[in-house]
Amino acid sequence: MNIFILEDNLIQQTRIKTLVTEILREEGISARQFEVFSKAQNLLDAIAEKGNHQLFLLDIEIKGEEKKGLEAAADIRRIDPAAVIVFVTTHSEFAPISFKYKVSALDFIDKTAPDEQFKTDLREVIAYTANNMHRSEEVDEVFTFESAQARVQLPFKDIYYFATSPTPHKVMLITKNERLEFYGSLSEIAEVNSRLFSCHRSFLINLDNISRVDKAELLVFFENGDACPVSRLKMKALMREWGARQETV
After folding, report:
1. Cβ atoms 4, 126 nearer than 8 A
2. Can you give the pTM of this predicted structure?
3. 119 and 11 belong to one structural domain
4. d(CA 14, CA 16)
5. CB under 8 Å to 171, separation ≥6 — which residues?
6. Contacts of the segment 214-220: beta carbons below 8 A, 24+ positions apart
């Protein structure tokens, strides 16, 4: 689990962090990343993963800007559609207009509540995130990769391909919406999803998103115009498996 807190009041920062730390210890839940921010942009810059294992606890009013937390939540939702967003605020009156920002917040927690109730509310959203981070309504349609250094979760249909990164021990993921880079290896990724095809030692591709194959040039193309090389020894298998996919569509 990764936990991000956005709160500009130092007293409230300490209070929330202390209670969350207690809850994690009491529930036996580990947080690989647990950070507190007073500025929305710093929080957004720190987001390096995607998935329902990411919990964001956001104040709504930041640095005197009444709706800064709502704006940050909208940015988070664009970056990470599966993230769990919770508002921890005194501005519960903003609950109705949060729908305008399309952030799908899990809850609004009143930080003026006594510590006992406040801790109970925090415990519920942390438990929810922990219990659901390994689940998906459509497990077969979600790609999930987890290692000691990273966790990535996104719809399989959005994936074009994976490639080795110039940065040692990292992999690049190219999707319909973005390009990500995270710690891992192609062999580890191939082990967790047999639907990916190894067309070359440096590439894993999603056969469902191929637009065309150039057998003469040993290239496979995707809808975004990108091309990946295909090993001569892999071309026959690629054409066979891609053809089988086309027949089932």
Report:
1. no
2. 0.61
3. yes
4. 6
5. 162, 163, 164, 165, 181, 182, 183, 184, 185, 186, 189
6. 215/239
Which amino acid would we find at residue 113?
A
d(CA 225, CA 61) in angstroms, rounded, equals 43
Domain boundary among 103, 138, 173: 138
Whether residues 205 and 220 fall in one domain: yes
State whether 163 and 131 are in the same domain. no
What range does the domain containing 118 cover? 2-138
Nearest Cα to 226, choosing from 172, 185, 153? 172
**pLDDT tens per residue across all 249 residues of the chain:** 999 999 999 999 999 999 999 999 999 999 989 999 999 999 999 998 888 899 999 998 888 776 788 899 999 998 888 899 999 988 666 555 555 666 888 889 999 899 999 999 999 999 999 988 766 544 457 888 887 777 888 889 999 999 999 999 999 999 998 899 999 999 999 988 878 999 999 999 999 999 999 999 999 999 999 999 999 999 999 999 988 877 655
Q: Helix %, strand %, coil % for the chain, to 5?
A: 40, 30, 30
Side-chain half-sphere of 181: how many Cα atoms within 13 Å? 7
